[in-house]
Amino acid sequence: MVSSNGGLNQMRAGICDMVTIARYLNVTLIVPELDNTSFWNDHSQFQDIFDVDYFITSLRDQVRILKELPPQQNKKVETESVYSMPPISWSNMTYYYDVILPRIKTYEIVHFTKSDATLANNGIPDEVQKLRCRVNYHAMRFAPSVEQLAKKIVRILKERGPHLALHLRYEVDMIAFSGCNEGCSEEEIDELTKMRYNYKLLIQVYIAAGDIYKSGKRMAALKEAFPNLVKKETLLEPSELEPFKNHSNQMAALDYYVSIESDIFVPTYKGHMVKLVEGHRRYLGFRKTILSDRKLLVELIDQYKNGTVNWNQFSAEVKAAHADRLGNPTARSVVPGKPN
User: Fold this and answer.
1) Residue pLDDT, tens place only, 157-213
2) Helices and strands, number each (H, E), in the chain
3) By the 8 A CB rule, do 39 and 136 touch?
4) What residue spans define the domains of the chain?
5) CB of 118 within 8 A of CB of 87?
6) Whole-prediction pTM value?
7) Terminal Cα-to-Cα distance of the chain (whole angstroms)
8) Which domain of life is it from (predicted)?
9) 3-state secondary structure 254-270
C-alpha cells in the first residue's frame, strides 16, 4: 500500500517507482492513494485524475494491481495496525530485495507513507528504467473527464495557429519560501516575509491556472511582447471548468496535457512538472522544448542592464547558449556517488 505525497507530478513520478518496485518484488500493489493533506488542498483520488481501469489492465502482464485490498487482508487492516514506513530515498533495487521484501513476507502488508524519490535515477538496470517509462508515458493516462477537456483546449489553440506553452512560475509559495525579492518594492518584500510564516497563504498559481503574484506588474512586459496571452480560464466557459475548481491537481493535469501537445514548451524553472513534461516530450520524438540556462541569463541580463553588452551582443549570446538546449537527445547526467 502506498500513500503518495506532493503535488500531481511529484506523485506521478513516485507512482511510477511504486509500480516498478512491485513488479520486481513480485508483490501486489494497491492503487496508490493521493496526497490530500498538504497545502495543495486537493481531495482528488487516483480515479479522479487518472484512468484507473486502463492503469490496471495496461500493466497486467507486468504486475498485479488491485483497487483495494482483498476482504481477508482488509479485515486484517481493520483489526490490526498495518506496518508503515517511509522507504529510503534514492535507493537501488538491492535495498528493496534485501530490506523491503523480507518485511512484506513478515507482515504480509507494508504501507509506504511516501512515494517520492524512492528509486535511484542512476545505477539501476535498463529493464527497470524501461518499465518506469512504460508506466509514465503509457499506463498513466488521464481520466476521460480530464483528457476530454484538455483536448478541447489543445484544439482551440491549434485552430488559432502555432502555440507555445510557457510554464511560468512566480508562485506565492515559491517566492515566499525562497526569499527571492528581485524587483520587489519594500512593501512587497514585507508582504512576502509575512507569507513565509503564514501557511494559509501558500497558494499555487501557474500562468495557465490563474493570476500570478502581482500579475499586473510582473506580466506587463510579457503581455506587451505577446499580446495573445491566454490561459484555460479565457479559452473555456466557466461552466466547463466548474467541476475542476478547488481541485488543483486536476487543474494541473489539464496544464500537463496542453504542455505535452504544444508546438513549443518553455519552462522557466526546474520543478517536478517541468521534468516530467520535458521527459515526456523527449519520449514522443524530441518535441521542441526550450530549456533556459538561468544562471547565464542572470549574468547576461546584469551585463545588459549595466551597459557592458549591447542588445545585439546579448541576443547573440543567448541564442548561442541555447542552440543545444531545445529538447534534443542528450546523455543522462551521472555524478559518481549521486544516485539522483
Assistant:
1) 888 777 667 665 444 455 555 556 666 788 877 776 776 555 433 322 225 545 567
2) 18, 6
3) no
4) 8-139, 144-322
5) yes
6) 0.81
7) 24
8) Eukaryota
9) HHHHHHHHCCEEEECCC
